[in-house]
Amino acid sequence: MKLHSILLVGVTLSNLVLTACVSAPTGPTITVMPREGKPFEVFKKEDQECREFAQNSVQDGNAAALKAGAISAATGAAIGAAAGAMYQGGSGPNVGTGAAIGMVGGAAVGAMGASNKETQAQTQYNTAYQQCMYAKGNQVPGFKPVNEFKPIK
User: Where does the secretion signal sit in this chain (predicted)?
Assistant: First the structure.
């Protein structure tokens, strides 16, 4: 198998694996409680509305961030594979091993970038969810509960 083929297969596989690892937020990672006296059915409805609000708030930027994370991981794998192959001299029986080792190292570095993008998306999701639930009068950690909304006159 030629070096070019080894690199192509390796980068393609690492790209697929790493892209599968990068995901959008599926829900909040914070706890919000209904205010005292609020019916649970009302709280559940508000929770669903705020999850949709949070998802919409991160959707545009999240798709770009997750794509950038996956590209970063694939690029790291490709550079690592090329460096590993060059380190092995570009020929001989161990060139595949050098490429594979370089690809794994490069993929790990790229995966860290993807992980950072995923963490940013989750933080943005949590903030939007928290703002929405607080505005609806629910108990949000770290904030004094709102008893009733009174418009400014």
Answer: 1-20
**Per-residue pLDDT for 146 more than 90?**
no
Handedness of CA 141, 142, 147, 148 (dihedral sign): negative
Is-contact 69 119, C-beta < 8 A?
no
Q: How far is CA 94 from CA 8, 11, 98, 107, in A?
A: 17, 18, 6, 20
CA distance 117 to 22: 9
Residue range 5-28, pLDDT digits in tens: 555 555 555 555 555 555 778 899
What gap in Å lies between CA 141 and CA 119, rounded to an integer?
20
Query: Which among 8, 12, 113, 14 has a CA at the least distance from the CA of 67?
Result: 113
